[in-house]
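Hey, resending since the last one bounced:
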Amino acid sequence: MARSFTPKVVTANALVEGDVIYLTQDDRWSRSHQEAELLEDEAHAQLRLLFAQAQKGQIVGAYLADAKAGPNGPEPIHFREAFRTRGPSNYAHGKQEAGNV
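The structure tokens again:
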């Protein structure tokens, strides 16, 4: 029996800054996981990933990450993805320093 599809978001890193970014429904890249497009259809998720991977001048390392619907937008399921939403932890600035965890 085939497994059911787990919803996903497209994530990558900004090519120049290296920040974690997420593909939005209107084809923007956002640094907020909550703005990401929640993909609930496997075929559509693959098309969105191909769209992202074609943007070699803006991003690097695009992939699909498991997510779930939350009250304020998609929420990460896996610890690794939750950790990525917090930004670098080895700097005294950025998301973690500002308390935007």
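The two ends are 39 Å apart (CA to CA).

Sorry for the duplicate.
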